[in-house]
Amino acid sequence: AGGLPYLIDQLLSAGLLHEDVMTIMGPGLHNFARQAVLTEGAVGYTPAPKQSLNDKILRPVNDPFQASGGLQNLTGNLGTAVVKISAVAEDKRLIEAPAAVFHSQDAVKKAFQSGALNRDVIVVVRYQGPSANGMPELHNLTPFLAILQDRGYKVALVTDGRMSGASGKVPAAIHLSPEAADGGPIAQIEDGDMLRLDTVAGILETLAENWQARTPAKPDLSDNEIGMGRELFSVFRRTAGAASQGAGVVI
Fold it and tell me: d(Cα 172, Cα 50) in Å, to the nearest integer?
């Protein structure tokens, strides 16, 4: 369809990328608005195509698939998060349902297998942030949640952890900050609390009453400290910044 050279050329032409950066190809992103070709055994470069070779895959800047991007920032009384909505059907972008709270992917799997999640539900998986356990990929949650959605239930995910693009068709509010390990409001959510995830308006909130007066949950996180090199990375967990700021080391 034109690949990254076409995409970068389009964004540069529209003034949507910074050109004045150093790259492995030299100064300027214009170096990447071209594609490599092999001619008589030698690598050369040709300019990116000016028109998409398949507009079902790549569209020009002046004729996008939709007016907004595929990501939405979320704010509310639970903090800030981000959600990918590009693959979420329009009728599933607003979810209001009771919370089911977990502290691991495995616990969600067991609840799914037992049938406890066969209902409208917002699955909350907390203590998955950079300070808690290094913010691992939560891709194992996707199949379970997608199956529940296919069964006709209203389903969403809220977590202070991360997921890749595999989050797909289920609305997933990820990177919730502040995280539970840093005293974030997600640590005060209880099973059955009504939550609202509105990916259109950019709102994530709990509708429970007097939730601020609750003592934050403090689960046993000792498994995060020992084995598989976890001891080596304890210093990074202790000094990790908020996911919303890149989870960098705070000195």
Answer: 36
Rounded distance between C-alpha atoms, residue 144 and residue 170, angstroms: 10
- Model confidence at 223, pLDDT cuts 50, 70, 90, reads confident
Average pLDDT, the chain: 92
Domains of the chain from N-terminus onward? 1-65 (no CATH), 71-218 (3.50.30.80)
Q: How far apart are CA 22 and CA 28, in angstroms?
A: 6
Calpha distance 48→166 (Å, rounded): 29
What does the pLDDT read at residue 21?
A: 93
- Write the single-letter amino acid at 107: A
Bond into 130 cis (ω within 30):
no
Dihedral of the alpha carbons of 43, 47, 50, 54, in degrees to the nearest 10: 10
DSSP 215: P
CA–centroid distance for 14 within its chain: 27
161 closest CA partner among 139, 143, 144 = 139
Say how far apart CA 35 and CA 187 lie, in whole Å.
Answer: 49
Closest to 230 in 3D by CA, of 136, 162, 139: 136
Report pLDDT for 244: 87
3-state secondary structure of 197: strand
